[in-house]
Design brief:
This protein is an alpha/beta fold. The chain is built from eleven helices and eight strands. 37% of the residues are buried. Bound molecules: guanosine-5'-diphosphate (GDP) and magnesium ion.
């Protein structure tokens, strides 16, 4: 299939080392994932690097996901990690505050232990991390509202790290930890490509579009058919139907399926096709079953 992206071992090793180093400075990991692909948008290596460090999962872009699927994912991820919150970082002005509050709540048991030992708990130190395009910068901007102050040095912590005093009880690293997406199975790669976490330049746009069409037709039968006025069940046929519907014809009179693919992916990425979640909890659980 489609997405064959090579990561050079040198790059990976450097990124891994940097991430491991930065993790030492924090008490809590805030891992962002795209609510439309909550399994594909994680990085399995984080599990190894994070060790037992508490983790709060943020599902971003809920405004473009399927609300019922999001509710299922939040419940499932809450069982698997310390907590999970689904947010619309674009339109919900309170999303930053909600994340701060949940982060402090997650760390309360640790802080309670410190109090029991007679230590006055210091502010929780947190780091946002995630693969490209999941909303890390948007979240940091939301949290770093105009009332937050930046401070460059913290005792016991590498000097080069800059922190945002998001709350008297929470400091957040101002630079997010970027993880590379996981490409080692075709479906994950196809989903990441469909939602734009992999650079389009290196990919076959028509293949990505057809993969996404196939997924949507399987999970949301009738959805594309009604948007593009076509009963096509074959992804290639659907691309042609999109070209017809959007009037995309090349100069030689042939339907421009390449532009149809671009337009379709653009509509999908912007949530114009409705709230769609292309991975459901059950399929992930099945993947996790021992062989
Ligand atoms: N609709 C919507 N768009 C979002 C949300 N969060 C982030 N975005 C958009 O997703 C894109 C990637 O966000 P960015 O913060 O740059 O991701 P990063 O690469 O993880 O730092 C940007 O165009 C954001 O405006 C969200 O909750 N809803
Ligand atoms: Mg960013």
């Amino acid at each position: 299939m489609v997405v064959k992206v090579q990561w050079y071992p040198g790059h990976m090793e450097k990124a891994r080392r940097e991430m491991a180093e930065r993790l030492k400075a924090v008490d809590l990991i805030i891992e962002l994932r795209d609510a439309r692909i909550p399994a594909a948008s994680t990085n399995p290596l984080l599990n190894m690097l994070a060790g037992k460090k508490p983790r709060l999962i943020i599902l971003s872009k809920t405004d473009m996901a399927d609300p019922a699927a999001t509710a299922e994912w939040v419940a499932a991820l809450k069982k698997q990690y310390d907590s999970c919150l689904a947010v619309d970082l674009m339109r919900d002005p309170h999303s930053g505050r909600k994340i701060i509050r949940e982060a402090i709540r997650v760390m309360e048991p640790m802080r309670e232990k410190q109090r029991a030992k007679g230590i006055r708990p210091r502010a929780v130190r947190a780091m946002a991390c995630g693969i490209p395009n999941v909303g890390k910068s948007t979240m940091i901007n939301r949290i770093a509202g105009k009332n937050t102050v930046k401070a460059a040095d913290k005792p016991g912590v590498t000097r080069s790290l800059t922190w945002i005093h998001a709350d008297p009880e929470l400091d957040l690293l101002d630079t997010p930890g970027v993880l590379w997406p996981k490409f080692d199975d075709d479906r994950t790669g196809a989903l990441l490509a469909a939602f734009g976490s992999i650079n389009d330049d290196i990919l076959d746009i028509k293949m990505i579009a057809m993969d996404a069409i196939h997924e949507i037709q399987t999970l949301y039968p009738g959805c594309l058919e009604s948007i593009y006025d076509s009963g096509e069940v074959n992804p290639n046929g659907m691309l042609k139907a999109i070209a017809v519907k959007r009037n995309l014809v090349r100069e030689d009179g042939v339907l421009d399926t390449r532009r149809a693919a671009e337009m379709f992916l653009n509509e999908l990425r912007k949530g114009k096709l409705g709230g769609l979640t292309l991975e459901h909890v059950r399929s992930e659980e099945q993947e996790d079953l021992p062989e």
